[in-house]
Amino acid sequence: MIWRFDPFDEIHNIFRDIDNLFRRTITELGAGSSLNETPSRRLLPGAMGLATTRRFAPALDVFAEDGKLVVRCEVPGVDPNKINIEVIGNQLKITGEKSFGREVNQENFYLREAAHGQFERLLALPEGVKTEEIKATYDKGVLEIHLPVEGSLAPRRVKVEVAEGQNKQIKVA
Question: Is the pTM here over 0.70, yes or no?
């Protein structure tokens, strides 16, 4: 498989990691004294965050394939009947809810990292998306949305033309 190099991937990963760090720190600080803290619970990583849950935000992949824009959304544990897809203007809106599953008594938790709750993702759509032909499928926790597009999704190079007499070199100080 050929991967397109994006020089900003590492920057995006750093921002995601910092965001996760702040979310986890705030979550851990918020729980504190409401727990029955025991020595064994204090030894566990993230033990102060037992009483709270993280907000669920599904990961997205967006790519072009066979003249269509494809949005792949990881939603494991989400009931497909609780997922809504809307096109509002030039935006694709994906909403849903990941439920807690079975309830467990709070005192029985040693560590709780699973994220639950409502989610919403918004994506700006390129011009030419045929909104009436959008199709979505759900398989094994992965939602795939196929958006047919008029014309080409391939980037188009535009040559910069230089006016006569303006072909001077620019000096950098």
Answer: no
